[in-house]
Amino acid sequence: MTNIDMNAEAASAGPNLSYWQLVRRRFFRNAYGVAGLIGCLIVILSAVFSGFIAPYDAETKDRRAIYSPPQGIHIFDQEGQLTRPYVLGFREDMDPNTFEITFVPDPETRSDLALFVTGDEWQFLGMSFTTRLFGTTDGSFFHLLGTDSLGRDVFSRMIEGTRITLLMGVVVMAAACVIGTIVGVSSGYFGGRFDMLVQRLVEFVKSFPDLPLYLALVAILPRRAEPMMVFVMFAAILVLLRWADLSRELRGKVISIRSMDYVRSAVAVGASDKRIIFRHIVPNTSSHIIVWATYQLPEVILLESFLSFLGVGVQAPMVSWGTMLNQVRDFQSFAAAPWLMAPVGMIVLSVLAFNAFGDGMRDAMDPYSND
User: Do strands 101-124 and 127-136 pair parallel, antiparallel, or not at all (unpaired)?
Assistant: First the structure.
């Protein structure tokens, strides 16, 4: 879409539509971007209301179900009649040839499912609640995605892990965005010796190979520190090396913007640097910052999951998708309990959703993109 086409679209839409209203209108015409937005909302709501959605607390143990496989939800009874949803328990069975312990459904241990049941206590905004989205009517355990080596419910831990993983992504993305914006805008606007010194710093930061440096920096984190302190230091390490790309990109955009007529006019009438930056420069780079943030968030999610999978990221008892995958680092664990790979599904969903949302925002904000 050219500038002429976008002007024609604005004229046909009416004279009262602002730029952001046009962006919103174009975005909701993009089915791929809207699908990504829906996926992002699912992930975000799962993180915010994880205590309500998860049937159990992340550390609740069912000691009678170690490495128990997932329980399927049934809506037909043994006679084939439609009934309320229920799950069947398992009983252990031994293979007479290999002596391997297997789990087989036990029709004698049926548990009916219901919505809004009483369960483990959870906190939200400083308030305590005991109502869970779903569970069994008799209070017995059930495990949609099985259990781990300690009998903890995988589905509950996966939902709880969404909070930590997404919090890490948002914190790192927001901090890197703020630092990169301040450094990039000020470097491009003021120029001169200040620009030269800042760009040498950016080049120094970008000269390090990411993954080896991440592993080296994370390795110096104290293992005996509190999990929250490790979380904060881990986030700071990720921020340390992720702001440079945005600052370099914004510097180039600001250099081109400061030569525009409206900026020159503001300088000519005596506007202060602060007013020019916050009224003319930053608003005209906001679309680039927003698109950069939507692409940065899934990258941080992947990086956190990878490093936590290696055991050098988020530490127990904090639960993230990476720490859950840390339990299946060898083929024996994977063969014994392949359902422990369930967090991979949430990682894929979140990465695809945020990337699709970022593509939709880029197309909506770019006047030269094709509808």
Answer: antiparallel
In this structure, are residues 110 and 76 in contact, taking their beta carbons and an 8 Å threshold? no
Total-model pTM: 0.83
Indicate if the pLDDT at residue 103 is higher than 50. yes
Would you list the domain boundaries of the chain?
A: 3-48+159-365, 59-149
At residue 189, the 3 state secondary structure works out as helix
- Compare 78 and 256 and report the one with higher pLDDT: 256
Within 10 angstroms of residue 319's Cβ, the number of other Cβ atoms is 25
Q: Are strands 101-124 and 82-94 parallel, antiparallel or unpaired?
A: antiparallel
**Taking the alpha carbons of 191, 268, 279, 259 in that order, is the dihedral positive or negative?**
negative
Question: What integer best gives the mean pLDDT of the chain?
Answer: 84
Q: How confident is the model at residue 226, as a pLDDT? A: 81
Assigned CATH class of 3-48+159-365: mainly alpha
Alpha-carbon gap, residue 131 to 52, rounded angstroms: 7
Residue type at 181 in one-letter notation: T
Contacts with 168 (C-beta within 8 Å, 6 or more apart), sequence order: 231, 234, 235, 238, 300, 301, 304, 314, 320
Dihedral pair phi/psi, residue 366, rounded to 5°: -90, 115
